[in-house]
Design brief:
Strand order of the largest sheet of chain A: 1-2
Protein name (chains A, B): MarR family transcriptional regulator
Radius of gyration of chain A: 20 Å
CATH topology of chain A: Arc Repressor Mutant, subunit A
Largest interface: A-B, 66 and 66 residues
Pfam family, one (chains A, B): MarR_2
GO molecular function (chains A, B): DNA-binding transcription factor activity
Oligomer: homodimer
Shape of chain A: elongated
CATH architecture of chain A: Orthogonal Bundle
InterPro entries (chains A, B): HTH_MarR-typ, MarR/SlyA-like, WH-like_DNA-bd_sf, WH_DNA-bd_sf
Number of domains of chain A: 1
Chain lengths: ~160, ~160
DNA sequence: AAAAAACGTTGGACACCCCAATGAAGATGA
DNA sequence: TCATCTTCATTGGGGTGTCCAACGTTTTTT
């Protein structure tokens, strides 16, 4: 029985059992693990995502990158500043559209991305270390559905 | 096969499938849902937790409250300022130990806590709406184990 | 040519998390 | 008793991730 209300149970324990609370905890743990893993490279999670997006969709404008990754344009500026300073991407004006910057991956960027992928995988392995492989698979599948920001279709 | 490295797969899609990424997304969604649910009361998640802790361990000092909930003393001050201003708790000097404040729940605090519990449950129901009841139970069980910050016993 | 949209940038805000230092007060032990 | 150590509440600061509003410039649309 996992009834939502059990008045006898301590209130704080109930909160600590809520998915929202657990998700916050687990996400924090993941952020910490990834932060430590990426510390060598001086990068963080958003850098990894943007670098990967640049690798995927080739030389591309910042706005398209933002649409792809879901990052705010404001934040994209900072992320790309960091990546550019680390010589992992180049940012050059687009001759065909003078509003745009063309973001392209450098050779260093590609190799760094490979390192980040390995480090990220390792951190995620540590994150799910408490689960068996089968449980991990199941957990990720369920988590993916929870993470999906799907509109509650009003069933037209 | 959920091998950690599949070079052909787009890099960003791989990142988006990482537990750390999904946890961040799902936690953000939960925070947003809870934030909207608690907006009426003018409170947020930490307020809920602290209010619940006060209800659980009766009139109690701030430090004990911090140990119970895991919140930083600095943040506890702000949270209690809010709760006190909303007349949900009282904060009075402890006669037996003039260092301490005695935090006690008011009648309004108790009824507000009940409302928050209902709102929290509802938000969490929306958060896990994509899952069947059986999946929900399984997900929460797995998530709880992932959220646990257990030391990797070095097997002494 | 005028209006609308997209682009990169800047400034600001919010939620949650964590650490360091301080003055006041209690606990400890020589 | 007196000095030391600890606890308490508070203040000040930092860091990550997310999001919104506005601006000047440039391209597209009408």
């Amino acid at each position: 029985m996992t009834e939502p209300s059990e008045p006898d149970e301590p209130a704080l324990d109930r909160i600590r059992a809520l998915p929202s609370w657990l998700l916050n905890r687990a996400a924090g743990r993941g952020r910490r693990l990834l932060g430590e893993a990426f510390a060598h490279e001086g990068l963080r999670m958003p850098h990894h995502a943007v670098l990967a997006a640049v690798a995927d969709i080739g030389p591309v404008a910042q706005a398209a990158l933002g649409r792809e990754t879901g990052f705010d344009p404001k934040d994209m500026v900072g992320i790309l500043n960091d990546l550019q300073r680390a010589l992992l991407v180049t940012r050059t004006p687009d001759p065909h559209d003078r509003r745009k910057n063309v973001i392209a991956l450098t050779a260093e960027g590609r190799s760094c991305l490979e390192r980040l992928a390995l480090l990220g995988d390792e951190a995620n392995r540590a994150l799910l270390a408490a689960l068996t492989p089968a449980e991990r698979e199941q957990f990720v599948a369920l988590l993916a559905r929870v993470a999906e920001e799907r509109e509650e279709g009003p069933v037209v």
